[in-house]
Structures are given as structure tokens and as C-alpha cells.
Amino acid sequence: MSEFSDYMENKVINAMRGIPLNIGDLYAALYTVNPTDVGGGTEVTGNNYGRIVVPISAPSTGASSNPADAAYNTATAGWGTINAYGLFDAQTSGNLIMWTPLTTPKAINTGDTAKFNTGDIDITVD
After folding, report:
1. What is the pTM of this model?
2. Residue 107 falls within a domain, yes or no?
3. Closest C-alpha to 30, from 89, 95, 97, 83
4. What single DSSP character describes residue 57?
């Protein structure tokens, strides 16, 4: 289940107050140690890793997902075991928008290409 960050929760409340909600592109980050709603965690670094832009489809009944596959660069050395992903508003640094723990953690080894298949990123507002 996805968790909105405190930053995003405040943005939603401000949008209800008439303050525009402008985020732009979403960049997917991979974590070896889960973040929390305030951020933190351990994002992968080095070895050809970098956040990727992930398109999100228009919502329907409070849910949306990625309408196409989204792949990272091929790992030039191990990235560790990925336990969660997060969506940010910037390719580096930026604000955590939401994060999701993986049901099945996945080790990324030398030569592997991490990828979100179509529909893997599920955003639901309940």
C-alpha cells in the first residue's frame, strides 16, 4: 500500500484551500531501506543508478498507475536489495511525494536492469 509523504499530504490540504498543486514530472527512486512519511530511508546511489521519470495515467475512481514500462539503466555493480520505491518531484534531491514497500524485495546485481512493468506503480487515494 502506498503512503503519501507529509509533504504531499500538506499539498493536498493546501489544494483544497485554493493553493495550486503543481508537481510536474514524477521521478521514481529505489530504496534498500524504506523511507517514512517524513522522508529518510536509503536510496540507491552509484553504479549507473539514477531516478527515472514515470508517467502516471489519468485517475479513475481514485486510482492511477503507470501506463507504460519504465526501466532504469543497467547496474554496473550491485545496487543491493530493493525494499521500496518512492516518487519525487525532482531527478535529484527534491521532495518525496509518496513511497511504497515492495511485496517481494528484489536484489539488483551487476548487469541487472530494474524495471516497473505497466501497472506496477499503483497510486490509490482512499
Report:
1. 0.94
2. yes
3. 83
4. P
